[in-house]
Amino acid sequence: MDTKKVHIMDHPLIEHKLSIMRDKDTTIKEFRECAHEVGLLIGYEATKNLETERFELETPLTKTTGTRIKKSVALVPILRAGLGMVDALMDLIPKARIGHIGLYRDEETLEPHEYYCKLPPDIEERKVLVLDPMLATGGSAVSAIDFIKKRGAKDINFVCIIAAPEGIETLHKAHPDVDIYCGCVDQGLNENGYILPGLGDAGDRLFGTL
Ligand code: PRP
Ligand code: URA
């Protein structure tokens, strides 16, 4: 695997907040707050390679050259759990357009099923950040990116909080052009496709549907 394509955050603040998220006794409120804060920290790294352009501006004192983001961004959370990262990324990129992809994993087969897809019409011109806290088998991420590519998008990154090595492998094989940004890489999957040690079901913990 091209390790340059997998960006694993190695940051004490992420590790600290992630440990709060992992704890089964953490409340929904704390879990949401940490998902937001970790989203900000990973989002900062995931936007590091955004293309910029120079432009002329005047400060109150003199003329100078400023820098601005060149390419517009689309954020695409995978429903439901990806929603827990959207506000953080919108704080960083307030003009981003938001697309939504609804997928759920069949609990028996672990296969992803699509139930909703609405993307910005100009998605092919945008840098697309696909958001989902959990990259487990990788099935949901691969499906979501398949849909987004069918709509013409060419410049896509995947941003998650916890990844399993199996999910990284699967996503990288299916979409080698997609960079993966993750807070950490856990040990692997259990027999039900849950990440270990993980944090449980991210959607249930964010929305209180345990
Ligand atoms: C979770 C998670 C990912 C998916 C990851 O969603 O948010 O989308 O599982 O698993 P995978 O890599 O094996 O596909 P889930 O299907 O539980 O739906 P939910 O967000 O609606 O709870
Ligand atoms: N989806 C989750 O929400 N958690 C896991 O551990 C695996 C898939």
**Multimerization state:** single chain
The SSE order reads: EHHEEEHEEEEEHEHEEEH
What helical percentage do the residues reach?
A: 25-40%
Q: List unreliable stretches of 5+ residues.
A: none
Would you tell me the structural class of the helices and strands?
alpha/beta
Shape: globular
Number of helices, where a helix is a run of at least 4 consecutive DSSP H or I residues: 6
Average pLDDT across residues?
Answer: 96
Largest sheet: 9 strands, mixed
Beta strand count: 13
Bound molecules: 1-O-pyrophosphono-5-O-phosphono-alpha-D-ribofuranose, uracil
Radius of gyration over all CA atoms, rounded: 17 Å
Strand content: 25-35%
Q: Report how far the terminal alpha carbons are from each other.
A: 36 Å
Structure description:
- This protein has helices at residues 12-22, 28-46, 83-92, 139-150, 165-174, 202-207, and strands spanning 6-8, 52-58, 63-69, 73-79, 97-98, 100-105, 112-118, 127-131, 134-135, 155-163, 179-185, 188-189, 195-196.
- It is globular and about 60 Å long.
- The strands form three sheets. Strands 1, 4, 5, 6, 7, 8, 9, 10 and 11 form a nine-stranded mixed β-sheet that branches.
- It is α/β, with parallel strands linked by helices.
- The model has no long low-confidence stretch (mean pLDDT 96).
- It is built from six helices and 13 strands.
- The site of 1-O-pyrophosphono-5-O-phosphono-alpha-D-ribofuranose has 23 residues, from β4, β6, β9, α4 and α6.
Quick summary:
By secondary structure, the chain is an alpha/beta fold.
What layout of secondary structure does this protein have?
Elements lengths: L5 E3 L3 H11 L5 H19 L5 E7 L4 E7 L3 E7 L3 H10 L4 E2 L1 E6 L6 E7 L8 E5 L2 E2 L3 H12 L4 E9 L1 H10 L4 E7 L2 E2 L5 E2 L5 H6 L3
Parallel strand pairs: 1-11, 4-5, 4-6, 4-8, 8-10, 9-10, 10-11
Antiparallel strand pairs: 2-3, 6-7, 12-13
The protein binds 1-O-pyrophosphono-5-O-phosphono-alpha-D-ribofuranose and uracil.
The site of 1-O-pyrophosphono-5-O-phosphono-alpha-D-ribofuranose has 23 residues, from β4, β6, β9, α4 and α6.
